[in-house]
Design a protein that fits this description.
By secondary structure, the chain is mostly helical. The chain contains 19 helices and no strands.
Length: 453
Amino acid sequence: MKADSKTMFSTLPPWRLFFTVALPGMVSMFAMSIYSIIEGVFIGQRLGEEAFAAVNIAIPLVMINFSIADLVGVGASVPISIALGKKDEETANNIFSCSIILIFVASVVMGAAMFFAAEPLSRFMGADDSLLHTASKYIRMYALCSPLTTVFFAMDNYLRISGYVKTSMFINIFCNLSTIALLIFFIVVLEMDVAGSALASCISLCLCSLLAMIPFVRGRALLKFRKPKFSARMLKEITACGTPTFLSNIAGRVTSILMNISLMTLGIKALGEGGGTTAVAAYAVLMYASDMCQPLIYGISDSLAPAIGFNWGAESYDRVKKIAKCGYIGSGLISVVATTVMFFFAGPVASLFVDAEEIKLLELAEHALRIFSITYIIRWFSISAQSFLGAIEKPLQATILSVCVALVFPILMLGALWGFGLDGIWLNMFGTSVLALVLGMILIKCALRKHIN
């Protein structure tokens, strides 16, 4: 189950490394997204349009909570990988140990804030009176389980760094299968509402967090727990390396909130009374459909990042270039397939999440999917570029790209395309991806000027 990560990162041919590391990573990330897709199916088909819209309004706050673990987990993974590349295992182990404590403390604080402020936060994020109670209930369930659910996302990174690539994949698969089983039990058997969906996810994440810790608790992983020694320099390094992903997540959730508020306004204008809820639900279909493709791209980028960081630390710059090229080719091919499927099969994809009797929502979602599908022709590049810049310790460049992609460019597009009504919302991500392609190419070229010809 465990591979020698040092040997694997430094000696395997780039394409063999890709299939050894990236394919399990893709499976892991897609396995995690399967639950999200099935959750969307169950909520849309069994609980209806209002529940679907309420969850879409609540989910940005849940993801903001998880992004704290990403800040520390991804932020720690980069210096850990580079320290291992320099054969400095003591530093790597200390960063690992400190990061676990940081995640736990931060998740306790964030969970408490989410629980007690669920209703005002839901209203702030766009919920009207009809959606407020449902959105708040969904948030509170995740808040109660925050301390154990959030650490799972960081442990997944640490398993891969330690060579437990397949173990990480199997845990992710188990997490989703158990969540799906619980989802069916809570919603179908017990006939619970959206709280049942949140509870299913929380129970599985808590269990898998404990499973992921076993190799480290038993001392069999490359990374080992040590008495933590915090330092300002270490905290600064974790923050700097994790900030691109964190800001991307936060900025993306802020953008989602702005989108939901805009959809409530434009939906009423285009569809009449109740049109805001319909428009938000259609946007939710786009987000759930994205989970069929986007996790695969993230899986490639996240899985190759430790290998890129290791070789960057070892000053094997030509190998860094070859590994990154494999990632770009793989991500590009997946994106072409995703665009084709979403465009030509928009109706069947939309019908997965929408009850056939909700004709207005189904027609709107199908139309939105066809427009949105062209995004993936170039969306993959900004994801890959951000991960690459973070892996080679270029946090400033990665931060600039992530914030622009997640917040700055979407807001610019929101204003520029406002006159197109709801179609402007569906086109937003494509416009953002075009701008991100140009910016990403410039940032990578500047970052590698001194190292790679």
